[in-house]
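Hey L., structure's done. Input below.
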Amino acid sequence: MNGMKNIKYLFGAVLLIALTGCNDDPNPAENSIIGKWRWVSSTGGIAGVTITPASEGHTMFIEFTEDSTYRKYVADTLQFEVLYSITEGQSIFSTEPVPMIDFGPQRIKQAILELESNKLFLAEDCFDCFGHTFSRHFPID
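Output:
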């Protein structure tokens, strides 16, 4: 239950997302979800377990593009690609609307509970589901 309690405290850090506008700068704007994110950990489930790349034996990246495409890579292999949208919406984590990522009718929406230049925390919007922490991936040129 502490995990759920901690998630509630993250609401003070919820940031607005800038997804519109043209930008030819290869470095993403501060506080933009656009870009590639490296999975750090996930916590949740009925047991409140925490899993990491070390415990699972693989890495994972997610990517949000300006053309509203979401990609998930596990061990550098594309697992799926889908269109997404972000809107303010009701979440089980707050009485106030929060930014919600909608991946389509057959996927669970995710609440954006923390978005900073180098950190992203997404929470699956359902009871006993998982929250996922990511760090921005900066490829070496």
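The beta strands are 35-44, 49-51, 60-64, 69-74, 77-83, 85-91, 94-102, 110-115, 119-124, 130-136. Confidence is low (pLDDT under 50) at residues 1-28.

-- N.
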